[in-house]
Amino acid sequence: MQTEIFVAGGGVGGLALAVKLASSGVHVTVAEQLKDESPLYKGELLQPKTVAILDQMDLLPEVLQYGHKIETLAFQEVDVNPGRPPEEIGSTELTYNRIASTYNYSVMIPHEKIKEILRNKASEYGEHFHFIPGARFLGFENGQAKIKQAKETYAITADVYIGAEGRSSPTRQAMDVSIKRKDYNHHFLTVTIPRPESFLEGKIVTTRESFLGMFPLPDNEIRTVLLIKAGQYKAIKEKGLEHVYEAYGDLEPRLKEHVRAIKDWKQIQLMVPYTYHVDHYVRGNMALLGDAAHTVHPMAGEGMNLAIQDADVLGELLSWCKHNSKTYHSHLPYYEQVRRPRVSFLLKLSHLSALVYSYPYPWWRQLRMQAVQRMYDDDQLHVKQMLNTSGLGIWNFSLVDRAIQGSMLPVRKKNITDHQQQRYIFDETDDYPWKHTNWKG
Ligand SMILES: Cc1cc2nc3c(=O)[nH]c(=O)nc-3n(C[C@H](O)[C@H](O)[C@H](O)COP(=O)(O)OP(=O)(O)OC[C@H]3O[C@@H](n4cnc5c(N)ncnc54)[C@H](O)[C@@H]3O)c2cc1C
């Protein structure tokens, strides 16, 4: 079998790449090991940059139809009194509305739904899109991709091979890329439960030792993420579901009854966070995208977004190569040139957000409360945090910012104008620099 671009893995990253390529007339073949939907929970929060990319693919109306818009994230610090309502000792909120873009919101959407939307879109370009479900990519042999489907093994020849297989990537192995994994002192339990109709915005409730993140989904459901100490899963499970019901009720009374919809531990998924970032994305005519190249701590809700944003840049580059008669492999490094610094930045941001919730010391909690409050009080901090999280741009935190956050300097009185922000928002030249004649990349 012959194709222009072979993609191993039909997750969000591989499928977003397929939409970009097939819609611009590049022949793409995607081999996905699963035959059906995956039962596993994977990210559901689409950050603003991803929303913008999906809009460029003409998918925004459908995404909004099946998703739930989130504009605000509330942060509440509480002391828990078992059986009684939690005692609030601090609260603040951050809002995507501070971003100077029409994409100033995020969207919660079930992971399998976004995959379905992408797959259906790629299928509209049937002449250029070939999807092989139940096909496992085994590695390379004689420069060709080796695929196993049912009991048959066959080869696919392509101009470019993309590894989009997620965390365990045969393409990464073939590229001889090294990864250094970083682990954390906490794990998460995650489960979707029903929610009250009025629970519409994101919320994070924190105690000294834990937190419960709540992100509304459509159809009056809500994704919940409970932080636990690493290695505690078994002990918690032994205590039984009643213990989980109580923990939820103590942290968020609005979910006290709804949490009882969990009837079986099978509904609850254990999430073990870790991160890595490969030392190179490209080798010859092979490239990695999404989790095959980098895994991020889930705290800032970036993993799925980084995969789709990789796909956007890589898809644009490969389409441009085809339409401008440029060789693919000599231009692939430009993909890494654009994506690596952005991914590194968000990996660091997510890591810092994780650390904020990693230690139970009272002084650490005090610092955290101050820092979160100051992010709201100081508009520049607020804008930077939301813009950086959104993926729409990068505006680095300065030493002055950190001193303000740490209460060593007073809060600035002036608000940031949209015009000031624009300098830090990526435009076409930043996203696809190779297209511009004055680019020296
Ligand atoms: C438990 C969990 C919770 C997460 N929570 C969040 C979150 O809240 N927010 C967020 O943004 N991100 C989250 N993520 C991360 C997010 O799911 C990933 O970053 C994102 O799915 C990466 O997309 P991808 O396409 O690179 O990889 P994947 O989504 O992993 O897709 C890879 C695809 O390749 C297929 N595959 C694997 N090996 C082969 C092979 N050899 N041959 C053929 N096919 C193969 C797999 O079946 C899969 O369909 C979470 C991840 C996990 C595991």
TrEMBL record:
Keywords: Monooxygenase, Oxidoreductase. One of its GO terms (molecular function) is monooxygenase activity. Pfam families: FAD_binding_3. InterPro entries: FAD-bd, FAD/NAD-bd_sf, PheA/TfdB_FAD_monoxygenase. Residues 3-344 form the FAD-binding domain. It comes from the Bacteria. Signal peptide: none annotated. PANTHER family: 3-(3-HYDROXY-PHENYL)PROPIONATE/3-HYDROXYCINNAMIC ACID HYDROXYLASE, FAD-DEPENDENT MONOOXYGENASE. This is Monooxygenase. The lineage of its organism: Bacteria, Bacillati, Bacillota, Bacilli, Bacillales.
